[in-house]
Amino acid sequence: MSPFAKFTIATVAAIVGTGVYVASVEPVIYEEPLDYIVERTVVGETERVVVTAPVRKLRDCDLDRGDGPLWVEFYDGKTSVPPISAFFKPDGTQAGRNVLRKGEAMVLDGYSATIPHRMHGFGGTFVVMVPCETWTVAEDGERVWGRKVTAEWGPLPVPPPGMTAESTGGHLVFTARAGGTASTKKPH
Predict the structure, then answer these.
(1) I want to staple 38 with a disulfide (CB 3.0 to 4.6 A). Which of 1, 96, 118, 165 is the partner?
(2) How many beta carbons lie within 10 A of that of residue 55, not counting itself?
(3) Mapped to the 3 state alphabet, what secondary structure does 29-79 carry?
(4) What's the structural domain count of the chain?
(5) Is residue 108 part of a domain?
């Protein structure tokens, strides 16, 4: 085989390999959280993380055609700590429908998840997982459904017991709650 033929085959293989890799990467649906407050609380016998944070959607992706409701995964470093938790609205019902369109934002105020028992007594991180299907609008105004993906929002810190994690512009501070009450400050 000539050197030119070898070069051509190697170039085509590199382009195809890169295309396969890029196609397998999940699209970024949500903006990285920079301003948030995460409180660690105890409700009855259950430890929970409670989140107050703005969420901005970067791409249209709806749960209508996804695999179900949101859930939260916890991590100790890079190691997953089971079990997963549902993501609850402040009224205690499970978060599910996604009302945001691309470019829109909302504030999660008091949404929560149950901390796995194996994480009691120390911190870690958590990620909100959102099963959805991407879509665009065709020239005729109809939705054109794309890939089913699991979008991620986070990671956010799980503060140690009795503490609150607050990030402003990506600057993270942990503070102890005085008298067991949490801060009422809201992120911008």
Answers:
(1) 165
(2) 20
(3) CECCCCCEEEEEEEECCEEEEEEEEEEEECCCEEHHHCCCCCEEEEEECCE
(4) 1
(5) yes
Question: Residue 136: beta bridge partners?
Answer: 144
- The token pair that represents 73 in the structure block: 């995964």
The answer to whether residues 29 and 61 touch, using CB atoms and an 8 Å cutoff, is yes
Looking at residue 69, its pLDDT comes to 81
In a domain, 12, yes or no: no
How many Å is the maximal CA-CA distance in the chain? 78
The answer to whether residue 112 is domain-embedded is: yes
The answer as to whether 14 is a domain residue is no
pLDDT tens for residues 9-32? 555 455 544 444 444 578 899 999
Which structural domain range is residue 117 located in?
28-180
Measured between alpha carbons, how far is 156 from 172 in angstroms, rounded to an integer? 10
The per-residue pLDDT for range 97-109, each reduced to its tens digit, is: 666 889 999 999 9
